[in-house]
Amino acid sequence: MPTPPKPLPNITNLDRSYWQAAKRHELHLQKCLDCSNVRYPASPVCGRCGSNRYEWSKMSGRGEIASWVVFHRCYFPSFAGDIPYNVAMIELEEGPMVISNIVGIDNRFLFRGMRVEVVFDDVTEEITIPRFCIAKEEPVHAL
């Protein structure tokens, strides 16, 4: 039996700019025009000051692992070929926490505070998903 396709994001008017930037291999997040708070996920109002004024700003794409979990059990058939895979909270240099995956490293070597940088996974012609890899300046040591 063929593996079912992985779910894709449901793009809305609120987050369309995020996905358009990802397609260009850029990470853009909302930045409040009144208090400069950078927020994720997209929101119609700023969680800090309540303003509805914002712009989409390009982020550095750099940050560090704040937390992660490694899935060893297959909950969805479309992810069977990825087991084990991680889901990580990345604290961006600009402040917000984003949820993504760390790619290109064995899950055993992940650690809190590990420096990472964004990479882009063109999963379809329309959808590109930001993921993260170990930053070039981060030394990776075997345990």
Please write the string of helix (H) and strand (E) elements. HEEEEEEEE
Regarding quaternary structure, what we see is single chain
CATH architecture of the largest domain: Beta Barrel
Give the strand tally. 8
Q: Provide the gyration radius in Å.
A: 16 Å
Mean pLDDT: 94
CATH topology of the largest domain: OB fold (Dihydrolipoamide Acetyltransferase, E2P)
Q: Given the structure, what is the number of helices?
A: 1
Task: Please provide a written account of the structure.
The strands form 2 sheets. A 5-stranded antiparallel β-sheet has the order 6-5-4-7-8. A 3-stranded antiparallel β-sheet has the order 2-1-3. The protein contains 1 helix and 8 strands, in the order αββββββββ. It has 143 residues and is mainly β. A hairpin with a 5-residue loop joins strand 1 (28-32) and strand 2. The chain has 2 domains: 10-59, no CATH class; 60-143, OB fold (Dihydrolipoamide Acetyltransferase, E2P) (Beta Barrel), CATH 2.40.50. The protein is globular. The model has no long low-confidence stretch (mean pLDDT 94). It has one helix at residues 16-23, and strands spanning 28-32, 38-39, 54-58, 62-71, 85-92, 97-100, 115-122, 128-134.
Attribute tags:
OB fold (Dihydrolipoamide Acetyltransferase, E2P), globular, 143 residues, 2 domains, mainly beta, single chain, 1 helix
Describe what is shown at a glance.
This protein is mainly beta and 143 residues long. It has 1 helix and 8 strands; from the N terminus they run αββββββββ.
